[in-house]
Amino acid sequence: MHELMIAQNILDKVIGERERLGLEAVLGITVKVGALSGVFPDALQFGFDALCRESELDGCRLTIESVPITIRCRHCHAQAPVDDYRFSCEACGSTDVDVETGYELDIAYIEVGDADADPTTQFQQSGMTNGSAH
Ligand SMILES: [Zn+2]
Predict the structure, then answer these.
(1) pLDDT tens digits, residue range 6-60?
(2) What pLDDT is attached to residue 89?
(3) 3-state SS of the chain?
(4) Strand 26-34 versus strand 61-67 pairing type
(5) What is the reported pLDDT for 132?
(6) 37-55 core/surface letters (b: 16 or more CB in 10 A; e: else)
(7) What is the dihedral of CA 11, 15, 17, 22, to 10 degrees?
(8) Considering the domain 2-67+102-122, what is its CATH architecture?
(9) What is the pLDDT of residues 75-112, one digit of tens each?
(10) Cβ atoms 40, 51 nearer than 8 A
């Protein structure tokens, strides 16, 4: 199950960060999941909950932010959301477009319980599971 591996990856990453930063407790993790990432949010949530209970992060909750697909036209540089997987420019009709968002599969931030720390720690590393997840 694809999502279970990703959930494990998220847990490992956050456990590593927690040790590195000396955090007391991790209360929550927010991940961005793009519509093109191939990940089913429900399955990821389910997998995470199951693994988390068995880990040192027990009690931590996962929040999934869905990221819609947007494209940018290479001709007229218009940016637009994609409906029904139609990858063509709304403005000029060109199909020569770049996908701007939709492939995300990143930890956005983690919420920590340490009184001394900032309540939300921005997770700088992006592309956590990029490459290995596809
Ligand atoms: Zn265009």
Answers:
(1) 999 999 999 999 999 998 899 999 999 999 999 999 999 999 999 999 999 999 9
(2) 95
(3) CHHHHHHHHHHHHHHHHHHHHCCCCEEEEEEEEECCCCCCHHHHHHHHHHHHHCCCCCCCEEEEEEECCEEEECCCCCEEECCCCCCCCCCCCCCCEEEEECCCEEEEEEEECCCCCCCEEECCCCCCCCCCCC
(4) parallel
(5) 39
(6) bebeeeebbbbbeebbeee
(7) 150
(8) 2-Layer Sandwich (3.30)
(9) 999 999 998 888 999 999 999 999 999 999 999 999 98
(10) no
Residue with tokens 């199909």, as numbered in its chain: 95
The model's pTM is 0.77
Going from the Cα of 96 to the center of ligand 1, the distance in angstroms, rounded, reads 8
Q: Could you tell me the distance, in angstroms and rounded to a whole number, from the CA of residue 79 to the centre of ligand 1?
A: 8
Q: From the CA of 133, how far away is ligand 1's center (Å)?
A: 31
Separation of CA 83 and ligand 1 centre (Å): 16
